[in-house]
Design goal:
Layout (H helix, E strand, L loop, with lengths): L1 E6 L3 H16 L6 E6 L2 H9 L6 E4 L8 H11 L4 E6 L5 H7 L3 E4 L4 H16 L5 E5 L4 E5 L3 E7 L2 E6 L4 E3 L7 H9 L4 E5 L2 E4 L3 E4 L3 E4 L4 E3 L5 H15 L1
Parallel strand pairs: 1-2, 1-3, 3-4, 4-5
Antiparallel strand pairs: 6-7, 8-9, 8-12, 9-10, 11-12, 13-14, 14-15
Length: 244
């Protein structure tokens, strides 16, 4: 069951979002779903505190009382796997939204051509019960980053950086451990390989390679240490075969 919460204090906007969402879900015969609408952050948070679980939350940001951004932080503390899409009237909070690790950020008025592809991607992730998360130390607080969204992790002047599928780059606080130890959880997953002393990459995002570099799908060039090349090449072609 896909349980969805809509948070919107404008009744007209809430009706539009619910109508579009219902239209989309009725075409998804592979999904059993349930939708609830809330007009305040406090009302939605009380529902969660009472034991209701929502796999997907569509949150407005600018609201009186407990706003969507504050609510998202509380939700992520309780449920790292909850998928959040912000639907708001301004782009001003986009960076802050991704620091919370919202899945998507759309500016109202919501349109089918933007909304439905986003729903496709987010719902696909909610159906993947084996999604893993990498604990990443930001300056403000640690966040959980889905393995599937990581293109690569790099170390720059003692600070780790993660390049994400959506194009964002997250910079963490200075490491108190070696980079090898830091990326060790990722390397237990066959998608990731340590190609260079300062880089670990997700093989799923490799476009091509030569003897010295991997070219990622975001056009980033990642160096390959000479003694890592044979293993990297073998792992790359094995991963492509498995994904075919």
């Amino acid at each position: 069951m896909l349980n969805i919460a809509i948070l919107e204090d404008c009744s007209i906007q809430a009706e539009v979002i619910l109508e579009l969402l219902t239209e989309y879900l009725k075409k998804r015969l592979d999904i059993k779903w349930n939708v609830k609408s809330f007009s305040s952050g406090e009302e939605l948070f009380d529902s969660i505190e009472a034991g209701d679980v929502y796999n997907l939350l569509l949150l407005d940001i600018l609201m009186p009382g407990l706003n969507g951004m504050e609510l998202a932080r509380l939700i992520k503390k309780q449920d790292d796997g909850a998928k959040i899409i912000f639907l708001t009237a301004t782009k001003d909070y986009a960076i802050e939204a991704f620091r919370i690790f919202a899945d998507y950020y759309l500016v109202k008025p919501v349109k089918r051509k933007e909304f439905y592809p986003v729903l496709d991607k987010v719902i696909k992730k909610t159906k993947d019960k084996n999604e893993l998360f990498f604990r990443f130390p930001m300056l403000e607080a640690d966040i959980n980053v889905p393995y599937s969204s990581i293109i690569c992790v790099e170390l720059a002047t003692r600070r780790p950086r993660i390049h994400l599928e959506r194009g964002e780059i997250l910079t963490g606080k200075c490491l108190r451990q070696s980079f090898n130890d830091f990326i060790a959880p990722l390397l237990k997953d066959k998608r990731f390989i340590h190609t260079h002393k300062s880089y670990a990459i997700n093989l799923s995002y490799v476009s091509t390679h030569n003897t010295k570099t991997f070219i990622m799908k975001n056009n980033l060039s990642i160096p390959i240490t000479k003694n890592k090349y044979s293993e990297a090449k073998e792992r790359f072609y094995s991963s492509r075969y498995e994904n075919d």
